[in-house]
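Late entry, evening session. Most of the bench is empty. Finally got around to the prediction I had been postponing all week. Sequence below, unchanged from the version circulated by S.P.
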Amino acid sequence: MKPTLVVLAAGMGSRYGGLKQIDKLGPSGQAILQYSCYDAARAGFGKVVFVIRRDIEKDFKEVIISKVSKSIACDYCFQDKDDLPSGFTLPADREKPWGTAHAVLAARKIVKEPFAVINADDFYGKEAYQTIADYFNTLAQGVENQYCMVGYPVANTLSEYGTVSRGICNKDSEGNLTTVVERTKIIRENGKIVFIEGDEKTEIAEDTPVSMNFWGFTPSFFKHLENAFVEFLKENIEKPKAEFLIPWVVDKLIKSNTAKTKVLTSNAKWFGVTYKEDRPAVVKKFQDLTDNGEYPADF
């Protein structure tokens, strides 16, 4: 069974200043997620499922799906903020969807096979897709609760133009994730990498593995998401900016010995557009990759 790629493309892109999910960055106007789908297809993925907002459906189908569907099967679903478990009502002051774990949950009705999850606005590198596809190939038929993630050294994931949010990871001697803690303000200052929490700054080693939201799950994860979402809402539904995040769910599953998550490493180079100032460098990188023969100029 070929794995599916779930692309989280419902984010507002507020720091970037626009719909970066469909921003034209490649030599022929490709968006970052077109490169992701191209890499997934050549790594052996069988389908892509996009999680989007209803208000961008028309543009997304015209700009992205019309092109991606030429090389890999495509489907999409919506992340709706009122998609809540029975017994919960959407608060009137809730403006945003509920975060990355809620976005994955939106795909529960159409994903029935092992699947990888990525952000739409991150370039992960072709080797990363092959690494996670190879992991899926090692899983015995019907195995559940055996998950994975692709980790990147934190030094390779920063922006020159402001703080970034990353899941800081620790792993055991067998390479399994032991903790993943979301740090929402990581930056390089005076030659050192630090995360900021309130008034405190804590240094992080350059090679510390971080999650870039490149996860590998089996379908059992959806039931865990449903249960965790209920728990999250009981504590946070009245908090208008609270987010239900993948690292939080994975961390709970690890601590309860419910699931194991293998930390995979690859030689892939990550880059992305967190801020609009990142854009020119990303455009150049795609041009360089094309000039070097890594990708066709138009696809």
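Two things to note before I forget:
The chain has seven helices and 13 strands.
The first strand starts at residue 4 and ends at 8.
Will write this up properly tomorrow.
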